[in-house]
Write a structure and sequence with these properties.
The chain has 449 residues and is of the alpha+beta class. It has three domains: 31-127, Phosphorylase Kinase, domain 1 (2-Layer Sandwich); 134-341, Transferase(Phosphotransferase) domain 1 (Transferase(Phosphotransferase), domain 1, Orthogonal Bundle), CATH 1.10.510.10; 373-448, no CATH class. The chain has helices at residues 16-28, 89-99, 146-149, 154-173, 233-241, 248-264, 272-276, 298-303, 307-318, 328-341, 386-399, 408-415, and strands at residues 44-47, 52-55, 57-63, 67-72, 77-82, 113-117, 120-127, 134-135, 176-177, 186-189, 195-197, 204-205, 373-383, 420-423, 426-434, 437-448. Strands 2-1-6-7-5-4-3 form a seven-stranded antiparallel sheet, covered by helices on one side. The radius of gyration is 26 Å and the shape is elongated.
């Protein structure tokens, strides 16, 4: 079934019923109650898109701020029963819309049916996930050991991360903004390393916003001008999202933050003030850790990421332009390329911490010829469009005292389809063209008699 969900990203929230419910959530605070009040005896009406069935509840699996989850008489389905004060008309409308716009993807736990008891809305049914097979990983808080979980093989970690990017691709294709994205939304299979995305009832669906956002995944633009590093991140973010719909660009930030933290086991910014100022804590180069050592700190992990991965994280976490963050589709291309590198023993090897060691060799250009002195200037630049990358190279060439006139548009178009372009004494070589990320080298030869 093709989705009919609309995208409201960036627009003010104007629906009076939705605003009224948001105000009620702000006033009530926590919604956690005694799970005993959620136990419903007898049959519950389950409204699927094409049929109505009756189910009954079995053992409780768990409970939280919105309600409790129970096993049902349907083996592959669980029921989420909301606390009585969470059973609002707006929530019922949102979940009815979701049930009638099914997302058919094995990695996305989408609500399958609406639950009613005595004619009143009480909850939803959704796919069952065995928590003995799937686990959440909160790397920053140290609840799990990354190396042990992924069997000391970085490829297993990358399998999961690639799966996450594919999930975000599907969300965007269906105009779904995750909004409240955090470690608890993802459950990873301990054997196959595939991923399940859960708690989609809290996502931004059509005109129904995501009204709660947890820490660590909120984009820098929400905190511009902040000077208090001890401020309440969730309160500031929630205050914003209670007025304005979230966007795919902010989902892009949340995804980049998740990928970074899973690879680095640390958050990208030291505190909220650093976040507000795009003060990313890692430099592109770190000579202290370019050689293999026994040190197991975060700088060591950073130094052993491929350089192009570091460049892309650096761009995502230092740019003030949200449009320059990579999308899920672009991250998928990048991570698949990284995965392929791990199979090339000539380029990489794995140490006991699953950290990739790259050998960097300096290029030594010799002066050739007895009469004619030939010198070479080698430059490297990267950007998010080919033409912009070429312009940066020519600017750097000029800084080196070399004046060169070039048709940047022509060079850009040529390199989109070819690896090398030689023009007189200049050689342009395309090194990477991954998604929107381009990297080009320029070698300029000059001679004197």
């Amino acid at each position: 079934m093709k989705t009919s969900l609309k995208y409201y990203g960036g627009k003010p929230i104007t629906d009076s019923k939705i605003l009224s419910e948001i105000n009620k959530i702000e006033e009530d605070g926590s919604n956690e109650d005694d799970p005993e009040i959620l136990k419903i005896a007898g049959k519950i009406e389950c409204i699927f898109p094409d049929k109505i069935e009756y189910i009954h509840l079995n053992d409780m699996v768990g409970n939280g701020g919105e309600g409790a989850v129970f096993k049902t008489n349907i083996s592959d389905m669980v029921a989420k029963i909301y606390w009585p004060k969470m059973r609002t008309k707006v929530r019922e409308e949102k979940l009815t819309l979701m049930v009638n716009n099914q997302i058919e993807n094995q990695s996305i736990c989408w609500p399958k049916g609406l639950l009613k008891y005595d004619g009143s809305f009480v909850g939803i049914v959704m796919p069952y996930i065995d928590n003995k097979v799937y686990e959440t990983l909160d790397i920053v808080l140290g609840k799990k050991d990354l190396a042990d979980f992924f069997n000391n093989d970085r490829r297993n970690l990358l399998k999961s991360l690639i799966n996450v990017t594919e999930i975000f691709e599907v969300l965007k294709e269906n105009n779904i903004v995750m909004g409240d994205f955090n470690f608890d939304n993802l459950m990873i299979n301990k054997k196959t390393f595939d991923v399940k995305l859960i708690d989609l009832d809290g996502a931004q669906i059509d005109k129904y916003p995501c009204v709660t956002c947890k820490s660590l995944f909120n984009a820098p633009e929400l905190f511009k001008g902040l000077t208090d590093s001890e401020a309440d991140e969730e309160h500031i973010a929630n205050s914003y999202y209670h007025k304005v719909y979230s966007t795919f660009l902010r989902d892009n930030y949340g995804l980049a933050a998740y990928l970074f933290m899973m690879l680095m086991c640390v958050k990208p910014y030291n505190n909220l003030v650093c976040l507000a100022n795009n003060d990313f804590g890692y430099h592109l180069t770190n000579n202290k850790y370019t050689e293999k050592t026994k040190a197991r700190d975060f700088s060591y992990r950073w130094a052993h990421l491929p350089y192009f991965i570091r460049e892309l994280f650096h761009k995502c976490f230092t740019t003030e332009n949200p449009n320059e963050r990579l999308s899920a589709k672009q991250w998928k291309i990048v991570l698949k390329y990284y995965y392929k590198l791990l199979d090339n023993d000539e380029l990489v090897k794995l140490d006991c911490d699953c950290l990739v060691l790259y050998e960097h060799k300096e290029i030594n250009y010799n002066v050739l010829g007895k009469v004619k002195l030939i010198t070479k200037t080698s430059l490297l630049s990267s950007g998010f469009t080919m033409e912009d990358t070429i312009k940066r190279l020519l600017i750097d060439l000029k800084k080196n005292g070399v004046s060169a006139n070039a048709d940047t548009k022509m060079i850009s178009e040529y390199l989109k389809h070819n690896r090398i372009l030689k023009i007189d004494n200049m050689t342009y070589k395309l090194l990477f063209n991954i998604g929107v990320y381009k990297k080009v080298s320029l070698e300029y030869k000059s001679s004197q008699i």
